Amino acid sequence: METEVIMLYPVLSFLKSLEKPEEAKLNALVLLLGKSSNKLSMPEAKPIGNGLWELRLRSPSSIRILYGFCENKAILLQGFKKQRSAIPRRDLELAKRRLKMYCT
User: Fold this and answer.
1) In 3D, which of 97, 93, 13, 15 has the Cα closest to residue 55?
2) Domain range for 71
3) The domain spanning residue 35 has which CATH number?
4) Among 16, 74, 76, 88, whose Cα sits 20 to 30 Å from the Cα of 46?
5) Whole-structure pTM over 0.85, yes or no?
């Protein structure tokens, strides 16, 4: 059974700001997420705690989309280019707030 994927506007804007090849690869990952739901695993997806996951595109620049699940839907919350091994605190906190707002 497929999972509905909801892309919040900030994530859509982030995707549109990328180079076309990266945007196409991320769109393919989003489709894969819809088909696989929470069964999607490494290297494409990884749980990061607090109900959040990261969708991972490994390209010359590591691109991540943070997402969570609410009412059997995958909610894409925040996108960014990863520059360090740790997820930037600002992006993590923003994703947590957005998931909480969306799910209540």
Assistant:
1) 15
2) 4-103
3) 3.30.2310.20
4) 16
5) yes
Angle at 29 between CA 42 and CA 88, to 5 degrees: 65
8: left (phi over 0), alpha (psi -120 to 50) or beta: beta
Q: What is the pLDDT of residues 38-54, one digit of tens each?
A: 899 999 999 999 999 99
Give CA angle at 50 (85, 67), nearest 5°. 70
Yes or no: say if 62 and 56 are a contact pair by the CB < 8 Å rule: yes
Strand order in the sheet with 73-82: 4-7, 73-82, 62-70, 52-57, 45-49
Please count the other Cβ atoms lying within 10 Å of the Cβ belonging to residue 17.
11
Total number of domains in the chain: 1
Q: How far is CA 12 from CA 50, 78, 103, in A?
A: 23, 9, 19
